[in-house]
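User: quick one, fold this
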Amino acid sequence: MRTIAIIATACAVVAAVLIAIRGTSGEASADQVASAIPQHSSGHYDASGVAGQSKAGQAQPVTQVDRTFLVKVRQAGLWEIPAGRLAQTHASSDAVRRAGLHLIDGHSKLDQLVREDANILGVELPNEATPEQQGWVRQLDDAQGDEFDRLFANLLRASHGKIFATIGEVRASTQNDLIRRHARQANQTVLDHMEVLEDTGLVDPKTFQEVEAAVAPK
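Assistant:
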């Protein structure tokens, strides 16, 4: 009986070892199969066995609309950052000063992004705001207190409302990934600026009518 018990124990040990070896081999085989399947950049497996080509490796068109969009973003920062700084010294309202800080922060970030994207895409950017925008800065610099507050709120709200509509058109039509990213960031920034300008309580109904007339389908 003792001999039988010893034999049974030995058989059990051998069976356990075989099962463990088979399990390890199966896991290794599964890992090898998984590693052989190409992956997309998102990390999902491509069951077809053909690696997905990254869009970053493809030449993407840069249209005239894309170029104009980058130029406008650059020019917006060239006058709205100075306008935001003037709000810190010329405004009488805390809400206007707060709006000015949002302009400085938002357009500083957008300006860095637009210069990076323009360099990648080979788009030449201006180093000056338009004559009209420079004139707005001079108007703001000549104003003080309540006059400045109202002028600031309405000039900036009108400008942001018009570009907001343009951003939507660019995002909807562009074929370029960098422009899409830029339009998304610009959209978020401009929306924030419109809201803080409206929070001043100083935007006139005429300003909204002006924007409506400018963005209405022709």
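User: anything notable?
Assistant: The longest helix spans residues 2-36.
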